[in-house]
């Protein structure tokens, strides 16, 4: 006769059934809910990234692209609030201070005393032939911020008279010097940015839709339609735009306003620039139309035009963005070159091209090198657009993504 062995010191005995139940319960794992299998390519508990998030992550790694984007944002904000930033009106002229060098900002006066607020000295012309000026150091004129000046409409809506900075008469604050008519170069650069920067956006706004539809139709239908449409596009590409603008300049009378010349430049640049973009879209569509989603849309009975507009062309968005960032600087260079040659925007309107034409004279350039400053803005804008275009190309192309 056997007895169950109990816990020592407790006096309690366990039967064989109770021992098996305790062993089974101790071997079972705790309840933790349903098990989920992590998807390959991402960590457990993380949400999949959208294509836009992946593109932004890649773009942030491209430092030059970010730098170009910051520069462009600064320039376009400058164009929007040009009236607020400019210390003088566009038509302001001081005939006694023609070819005045850039104003020197001082913090220490003639007596050796330091000032917290920068100031300038009034100047007078000493030698008109050598274009030398003498500063009157008996009194300094502090630079004042948010001063009241000529009335204008901020963002073309809000009437105001407040300007970012200025000085009291008779001193002048020519941050980038003055031209041959005594006009502030900085003021004219700020106002000229409206024409030089907006021309690229308007040209792209015209060429992109035309090129997308034209190239999409040619690539989708192919065959004779593609052959005929591409021959027409090649004729337009071969047409010299420079001679068109020469003819335009010869036909238009000198009394035509700046706005009319500006819009005609946009029309000519757009009427020729869309053909090259159409060829790029056509090649892209030739590959896209073989994809399953296009074949499925055809099988569902959708019309050709609907397939092109709703399914094919939206998938060319990455190419469109890249081409747009590279087309805008080309349009800016085209307008600047035409205005530099006197075929584009003319006086009294201001653009970076016609401002740069003042430095075409070798004597003016040698004595007044600050007249080349508008050219630096042109170079900075074109380089910034190219940097941004390279970054967008790497970000939007899945084959270029890293990490």
Description:
The chain is mainly α and 403 residues long. It folds into 2 domains: 87-183, no CATH class; 186-400, Orthogonal Bundle (MetI-like fold). It has 14 helices and 5 strands. The strands form 2 sheets. Strands 1-2-3 form a 3-stranded antiparallel sheet, with no helix packed on it. It has a two-stranded antiparallel ribbon with strand order 4-5. The longest helix is centred in the middle third of the chain and has 37 residues, at 185-221. The protein starts with 15 loop residues before the first helix and ends in a 7-residue tail after the last helix. The model is unreliable at 1-27 and 29-36 (pLDDT under 50).
User: What's the end-to-end separation, in Å?
Assistant: 74 Å
What fraction of the residues are assigned to beta strands by DSSP? Answer: 5-15%
Which class of the largest domain in CATH terms? Mainly Alpha
CATH architect. name of the largest domain? Orthogonal Bundle
* Helix-residue proportion: 40-55%
């Amino acid at each position: 006769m056997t007895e169950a062995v109990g816990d020592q010191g407790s006096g309690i005995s366990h039967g064989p059934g109770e021992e098996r139940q305790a062993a089974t319960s101790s071997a079972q794992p705790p309840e933790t809910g349903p098990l989920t299998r992590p998807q390959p390519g991402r960590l457990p508990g993380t949400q999949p990234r959208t294509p836009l998030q992946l593109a932004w992550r890649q773009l942030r790694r491209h430092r030059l692209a970010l730098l170009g984007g910051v520069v462009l944002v600064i320039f376009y904000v400058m164009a929007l609030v040009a009236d607020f930033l400019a210390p003088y009106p566009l038509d302001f002229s001081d005939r006694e201070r023609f070819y005045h060098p850039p104003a020197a900002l001082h913090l220490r006066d003639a007596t050796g005393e330091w000032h917290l607020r920068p100031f300038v000295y009034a100047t007078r012309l000493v030698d008109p032939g050598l274009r030398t000026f003498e500063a009157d150091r008996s009194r300094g004129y502090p630079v004042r911020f948010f001063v009241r000046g000529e009335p204008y409409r901020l963002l073309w809506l809000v009437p105001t008279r407040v300007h970012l900075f200025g000085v009291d008469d008779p001193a002048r604050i020519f941050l980038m010097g003055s031209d041959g008519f005594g006009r502030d170069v900085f003021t004219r650069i700020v106002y000229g940015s409206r024409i030089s920067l907006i021309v690229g956006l308007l040209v792209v706004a015209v060429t992109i839709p035309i090129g997308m539809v034209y190239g999409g139709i040619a690539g989708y239908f192919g065959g004779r339609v593609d052959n005929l449409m591409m021959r027409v596009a090649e004729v337009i590409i071969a047409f010299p735009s420079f001679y068109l603008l020469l003819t335009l300049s010869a036909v238009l009378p000198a009394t035509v306003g700046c706005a009319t010349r500006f819009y005609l430049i946009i029309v000519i640049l757009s009427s020729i620039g869309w053909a090259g973009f159409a060829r790029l879209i056509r090649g892209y569509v030739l590959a896209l139309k073989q994809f399953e989603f296009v074949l499925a849309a055809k099988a569902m009975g959708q019309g050709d035009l609907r397939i092109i507009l709703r399914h094919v062309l939206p998938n060319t968005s990455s190419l469109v963005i890249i081409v747009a960032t590279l087309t805008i600087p080309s349009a800016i260079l085209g307008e600047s070159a035409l205005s530099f040659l006197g075929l584009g925007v003319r006086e009294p309107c201001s653009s970076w091209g016609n401002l740069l034409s003042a430095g075409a004279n070798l004597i003016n350039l040698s004595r007044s090198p600050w007249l080349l400053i508008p050219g630096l803005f042109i170079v900075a804008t074109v380089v910034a657009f190219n940097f941004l275009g390279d970054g967008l190309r790497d970000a939007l192309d899945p084959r270029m993504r890293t990490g």
